[in-house]
Design brief:
267 residues; 3-stranded antiparallel sheet; 4-stranded antiparallel sheet
């Protein structure tokens, strides 16, 4: 097939002429042609989506730019590979070959062409004394690595993240105990107290917990039970109140747990 070498346009078989460099508009047109043929799959009449296998191997724009430079190597004298890749990516986004939203992870907030993926960052509502956020966390990954939770200057699996959270909850109980100590609040006495939690308007407790001992058993244990008539219908304020009470109940329940753990350790 005849090649129009002086025009700088893509020939019918996809090759570039070698004498005259194309304009940006011509490059964008070629990106659309090459990109559409190499990265999209049929979608039953819906907008085509990029094949994730291709985008994982290399960024879309870089792959298309490499194809163009392979067909017209002298173009490298006018434009860098990164610039050409950016032009190709922009053309693909404008025509719908690539979608602006990440097609690899639903949680990713990055748009356009990218290899690194990040979710929305979360942080503690109260900053430190310098005004900096604390306990920041996010899901993150690269195309060649599985997602993890970025937290506490490390990367964790879901189970490892939950372990760190459990440790932090126990730590916050200790911080709250310091506040109680400074305020003159007596510390819990697990062996002598029963802890309960009620929903607003309920006649019975949702849960009770206390240390139980018996001559038939060598070690104490935590007895937990509910009561009849514990149901309730709560509005927002009532639900917030129950959440606060449950959080306090969990703190007291942990004190009971620590009491029987100490008894087992000293056995």
């Amino acid at each position: 097939m005849t090649r129009r070498a002086a025009s700088g346009r893509v020939n019918d078989d996809g090759a570039w002429g070698a004498t005259q460099a194309p304009s940006v508009e011509q490059i964008e047109s070629a990106c659309q042609q090459i990109g559409s043929s190499m990265t999209t799959v049929p979608t039953g009449g819906h907008r085509a989506q990029p094949q994730t296998g291709h985008t994982a191997a290399a960024p879309f724009g870089a792959r298309v730019a490499a194809d163009i430079l392979a067909q017209m190597p002298h173009l490298a004298e006018r434009v860098t590979t990164d610039t050409l890749a950016a032009i190709c990516t922009r053309a693909a986004l404008q025509t719908g070959i690539l979608t602006a939203r990440c097609t690899m992870h639903d949680w990713c907030t990055e748009t356009g062409e990218h290899r690194d993926h990040y979710s929305t960052y979360v942080e503690a509502p109260t900053p430190d004394g310098l005004g900096d956020p604390v306990l920041m966390a996010a899901i993150m990954s690269s195309d060649d690595k599985p997602p993890t939770i970025g937290f506490l200057d490390d990367n964790f699996t879901p189970d490892q993240t939950r372990e760190r959270i459990a440790e932090l909850r126990a730590h916050l109980d200790q911080v709250e105990a310091l506040a109680d100590q400074l305020a003159g609040v007596a510390p819990p006495e697990p062996a002598a107290e029963t802890y309960s939690v009620h929903a607003r308007g309920a006649r019975g407790a949702l849960a009770n917990a206390e240390i139980f001992t018996s001559d038939a058993r060598p070690l104490p244990w935590v007895a937990v039970w509910g009561e009849p008539m514990a149901e309730a219908d709560l509005d927002v304020a009532g639900t917030d109140e129950l959440i606060r009470d449950l959080e306090q109940f969990v703190t007291r329940l942990r004190a009971l747990r620590n009491y029987i753990a100490a008894a087992e350790a000293n056995r």
